[in-house]
Amino acid sequence: MRGILASELLKIRGKMVWFLVVLGPVGVILLQAVNFGLRYDYLTDQYADDLWGGLIGNVVTLALPTLLIGIAILASMAAGIEHQTNAWKQLLALPVSRSAVFAGKALLHVLLLFVSCTLMLIGTLALGFVLGFDAGAIPYGRLAELVYYPFLAALPLMVLQVWLSITMANQAVPLTVGIIGMIVGMFGSRFDDWVPYKWPHLINAAGEPLYSVACGIGLGVVLLLIGMLQFAGKDVK
Amino acid sequence: MMRMFRSEWMKLRRTVIWALAVISPLLAGVTGFLSAGDYENGQEGVWQIALGIMGLLHAMLFLPLLTGVFAALLCRFEHTGGGWKQLLALPVSRSSVYAVKFIYIMLLLAITQLLFLAALLATGLLLGFAEPIPWRMLLVSALGGWLACLPLAALQLAVSVAWSSFAAPLAVNVIFTIPNILIINSAQYGPYYPWAQPLLAMVPRDEMGFGAFNLSPETLLGVILVSFVVFLLGGWGYFIRKAV
């Protein structure tokens, strides 16, 4: 598995993938920097009791749609390498199991988004310092929750996009599914609890964010296993 | 030129591209229908409210992003398997190849806008809106949204021609479209941001007017025109010199 992941990492070099992994969080933080910079007095007045909470809330409203569409774009870029060069046959002719190839793509994807989410956390801290918020009052726990919980709750969506991008040669379909997912996901808090697009919002009837996270991890693993089985029996061009 | 239209048509027939044109209007229609509680039937301006709800969903993110998908799809057939060399080796000018592809993007967007209009009308008729249909407002909205896509289509065609990856041009599109979520709230900067124009053009300004919405149509048209000319000339100038 380590060999497969290493080869996946090698393949995405020079393909703008890392650039996007960095640009996502940097873009969100820069937009919030402009937002807070232009309306500093208004916003700091509005969040006077809880400056960090206000900042985190603002970051999350932009971070969620960015995460959802980022999932689709990165999955399509990683799978697109084989589609564009018609390399699926070649890749699968190597002495590696097909399910391991699928798991490798999925693992790479999760890793990329983990890096992206971590950068979001660092960026939020940095922006808070720049804005002169009290460094002693940083709610580390809440910050980590609001970055990593949605990431974990979105695991099923990651596996779905990886699976779609790998199975379909025409990347318009997985990307459009991703766009729909982003728009549906933005209004996701209104759905019933069972809809996976609601989970990254961490809202549920029980009022316990960890339930959403647990559902995400559970369904993510199930979808990964189904995807591995399906890919093992699939014809490739 | 007519023949080039037909050859492009052959490439597009029976592809997913047609299904893509339906999705956003369908989604907007369902949302509009489910928001029945938001419009009291006897109330004045009920069509305007429906247009506001559905237009926000359709034009804030979907319409600009869809423009990018259409552009990338139109170039996909050439990017796979060395199609650019084959196409440009034929006795056709590069400018007309570029023009035909651009016109097709706008054609697909026109179909999307008509379907959106149909979805809006269906919502109103199904819910039995008491007011007469305000044709003028609805047509201006659909047409305005379509015109506002001109600069976006020009830029997306340029990057789609440049990169063989399908996701890369779309990433450019997303990078510029996501700031919409913030920018439409700003009366100062929103009107000058090309990616916010489809929304500003589609949502009726007197009812739902907030932030960037209260601006004269002349200013909006100016922003659309200037950015369109810049993106189109840039993309076209690049394509006619490009080594394929």
UniProtKB/TrEMBL annotation, chain A:
It comes from the Bacteria. It comes from Paenibacillus phyllosphaerae. The chain crosses the membrane at residues 16-35, 55-81, 102-127, 147-166, 173-191, 211-232. This is Permease. Keywords: Membrane, Transmembrane, Transmembrane helix. The keyword Transmembrane applies.
TrEMBL record, chain B:
The chain crosses the membrane at residues 46-75, 102-127, 133-154, 161-184, 220-240. Keywords: Membrane, Transmembrane, Transmembrane helix. CDD domains: ABC-2_lan_permease-like. Signal peptide: none annotated. PANTHER family: INTEGRAL MEMBRANE PROTEIN-RELATED, MEMBRANE PROTEIN. This is Uncharacterized protein. It comes from Paenibacillus phyllosphaerae. The lineage of its organism: Bacteria, Bacillati, Bacillota, Bacilli, Bacillales.
